[in-house]
Amino acid sequence: MSLNEWSEEIVIAETGPEPTFSEDMSGLMNIVEDADRGDRAMPDMIVNLADVDYLNSSNIAQLLRLRKRLAAGGGKLRICSVGDQVWGVILVTGLDKLFDFHDDLATSIASLQLEA
């Protein structure tokens, strides 16, 4: 995994396939917990799914928890670079209505910067 702090306000997670994906989500949750404790401001996050081949129920639950915790603290979540196989799971589960998806990383960053 690669966690990159694009700026003080934006964290980018370049996720990988399982089991790396679960570890990546744990790392992002640690950042959110630090913000909850007041160690840092609640960042906006981008999760890049370019290297993810599939999502299982545990992965979906992790994304939902991350979204909920970010929203509670005023942070935003973007998901980008979703492959066809993963997109099929997202559509079947209705997650396309809950998350903000973008085609690529640059578009995700731009959307966050425009909302600021």
Given the C-alpha coordinates, what overall shape results? globular
Low-confidence stretches: none
- Overall structural class, as computed from helix and strand content, comes to alpha/beta
Rg value: 13 Å
* Beta strand count: 5
Enumerate how many helices there are, as a single number.
4
Written as H for each helix and E for each strand, in order along the chain, the element string is: EEHEHEHEH
Reported CATH architecture: 2-Layer Sandwich
Please report the distance between the alpha carbons of the first and last residues.
27 Å
Main sheet: which strands, in order across?
1-2-3-4-5
Helix percent band: 40-55%
Mean pLDDT: 91
Q: What top-tier CATH class fits best?
A: Alpha Beta
Fourth-level CATH superfamily: STAS domain
Number of structurally distinct domains: 1
- Major β-sheet annotation: 5 strands, mixed
How much of the sequence lies in strands comes to 15-25%
- The CATH topology turns out to be Transcription Regulator spoIIAA
Could you explain the architecture of this structure?
The chain is of the alpha/beta class. The chain has a single domain (2-115), classed as Transcription Regulator spoIIAA (2-Layer Sandwich). The protein contains four helices and five strands; from the N terminus they run E-E-H-E-H-E-H-E-H. The protein has helices at 20-37, 57-72, 84-93, 105-115, and strands at residues 2-5, 10-14, 44-48, 77-80, 100-102. A five-stranded mixed β-sheet has the order 1-2-3-4-5, sandwiched between helices. Helix 1 runs parallel beside helix 2. It starts with a strand and ends with a helix. The model has no long low-confidence stretch (mean pLDDT 91).
